[in-house]
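As described in the Methods, two query proteins were run sequentially through the folding procedure within a single session, without resetting any intermediate state between them. The first query and its resulting structure tokens are shown here.
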Amino acid sequence: MVVVVVGPWRQRYSEHLLRSLKGPLPADDPELLHYLRQEVLEPPSGEPYKPGTDLLRIQVPSVAFYSDSVEGLFGDERGGFFVEAGALDGESMSNTLWLERERGWTGLLVEADHAAFLALRDKRRRAWAANVCLAPTPYPARAAFRTSSQPTSIGFITDIKHRAMNSLVEFADEKAVSRSWFTMVQCVPLESLLLAVGAARVHLLVLDVEGAERAILSHLDLRRFDVQVVFLEWKKMEEVEAVKEDMSRRGYVLEARRTEDFVFVKKDSKYEGRLKRRRLR
């Protein structure tokens, strides 16, 4: 005999539990997007810029490489949209500030480190900002975040350099974990953030998230979002060919490289070949 129970049993359980039983929230869940707009995303500032506290005034080679790539790819192009994940304080080692200030671009700045995010907010950037990490999964989740600096302040050159190497514990170097601080952070799919701000086209995507780049990209639907150029850092040299194959399968060609720094452009886009032609002049 089979007994079927119907009716008021559901009332004994919270809506949270019943919803959780269905599995993780999809990246495009309407309530999630509403939450991001209301509670997470900070809109572009309309106040005057507050620059002048760049903690790395002397450019490191990686920054010089990407700065040259930005100018070579985008030149005088105005009004584009960028995403910079691992935005730090919004000024030090920024790959997007020049586009914003000199070319009128806007975009989305993502920084998981809270102290760095407070410094970013103080810069009054003309871009959306979110104090979260990009999820290496297709759904939002909490995750352990490794920070090489004490998570209470920001202000020294060595501190900003260390914070540039912060990462999710899942992707952290084993040797670094033993001398780190940890905190729990909220991770959100890049797709969710783009939907929340209404950005279907991204001219420049900068991923400097210390090992989670491939996982983040694998969950971004490139049929839904038109991403033209990707700046990608990858430190594991033994995996470089796999990274290039991943990007090729997704429709990108390697436009330029400097050791662990990569510039990929969308195949057959107007950006393909620009840096190579520039070097031949």
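Immediately afterward, the second query was submitted; its sequence and tokens are:
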Amino acid sequence: MVDVSGKDATERRAVAACTVEMKAETLEMLLKGRMTKGDVFQVARVAGIMAAKRTPTLIPLCHP
């Protein structure tokens, strides 16, 4: 393992994108907030934050 304690802190940014395919009816329900399981966009935001926080455990040699 490499000692990184002497390195200066740096600010980094990552950007991700995806494509989701669905029926037109599903998209309409989504945009109108009629999904039976709640706010899909808020769940996606929270999932993204949770995934970002786990980066050091998922990507080798990535230090928190």
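The chain has a mean pLDDT of 88. We note this only descriptively and draw no conclusion about the first query from it.
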